Description:
The protein has helices spanning 9-25, 30-40, 56-59, 85-93, 220-224, 238-251, 268-278, 298-303, 322-329; strands spanning 42-49, 64-73, 79-83, 98-103, 111-112, 114-119, 124-129, 153-158, 166-177, 186-189, 201-203, 209-216, 233-237, 256-258, 262-264, 290-292, 310-314, 317-318, 337-344, 347-354, 356-358. It is elongated, with a radius of gyration of 23 Å. Helix content is 23%, strand content 32%. Strand 6 and strand 7 form a beta hairpin. It has three domains: 6-129, Beta Barrel (Thrombin, subunit H); 153-251, Trypsin-like serine proteases (Thrombin, subunit H, Beta Barrel); 256-358, PDZ domain (Pdz3 Domain, Roll). The chain is of the alpha+beta class. A seven-stranded antiparallel beta sheet has the order 5-4-1-2-3-7-6. It is built from nine helices and 21 strands. Residues 1-28 have low confidence and may be disordered.
Amino acid sequence: MAKLKPVFLPLVLVSLLIAIGWGIHYNTTKDDDILTKYMVNTFMVSTEPIREDDRLPAKLGLVGHGTGFTYKVEEDGSAIIVTNEHVIEKHLLRPDITKISLYMINRPWPYEAEVIGADKTLDIAVLRIKPHDGETWAELAWNLDKNNLEGTPVTTLGHGLSQPYTLTKGIISGTDRWTAKPLNFLMQHSAIINVGNSGGPVWNDKGEVVAVNSMIISPSSNRSGIAAWDGVAFAIPAWQAKYGVDSILKYGYVKFSRIDFETYTPTIEQVQKQDTECNDGDKKKRSYAYVKVPGDAKHSQMMGLKNEDIIIDIDGEEVWGIASIAKAIINKKPSSVVLIKALRECKLVEIDYQLLELELVKKVPLR
């Protein structure tokens, strides 16, 4: 049985009081049931010294904490936990002197975590913990809609500024923030988060995970180096986070797909010609994804793409430009085949395109 670390005694005592109050005052409505489920399936994720008396990790700045939550439960009762890569990156740098411990709201002991895998690009990490006391963790529902709307109410839970199990509400402020971080289509929301909320769940009124908290944009960080709340929170959308988690569970790392053709920005005259000659004057049908097939793009040439094709759809996802092409393929495995619909001299053509693999860096599974 794992021993309770003294440094976390105040946290656990507070958590137990919260848990007792929870049992007395809640579990009366659907919303309360949702909140209770998130409370008992959300964890503090702590990077700690392996030896309690070892001061070196703290001196080296290797200790810290974030948030994580249950992804699924295995047959033996072990829980697969989702968090951010940056929450555990200090442990990954020095696993010889640090460990990852998880703490939950209604148990007074830590759970030492096994790192299954992590990906810096998506900022996703996957852990495993084993039960000590017959704990019955539960998988949380995920909403994989790529088109969640701005204004949708959301709730988040985490340990911002070391305040355990802080619950905040807001709305989706923006989606597809693809310029904030390469290869990410981040969701922006207005629920208050701070340092310590990283890796926590963001859910909708149905109790479905819609995103995983990841980062804050803050002018304060330019002065102090520590991001503070300025109203701009970014989270990994559920559809992209889940793809990353499943890829890590299967391969030990995340596989990304790519294309070998390009698009270019058309002139106003080209777009207006598309309106009148291809779309019966309907500007809502416009696409700005005009294809350019470089001479060395042998794969696209073999697949049947041609210069000046106008891509309008990939696997049922509407395309308007290169960003929407990237969004359509970023959660699909390399070598999978997508159906590209394009206009070629105003005639609809359909092309089966096999995705290539994007080699970012050499991927080495942790396990």
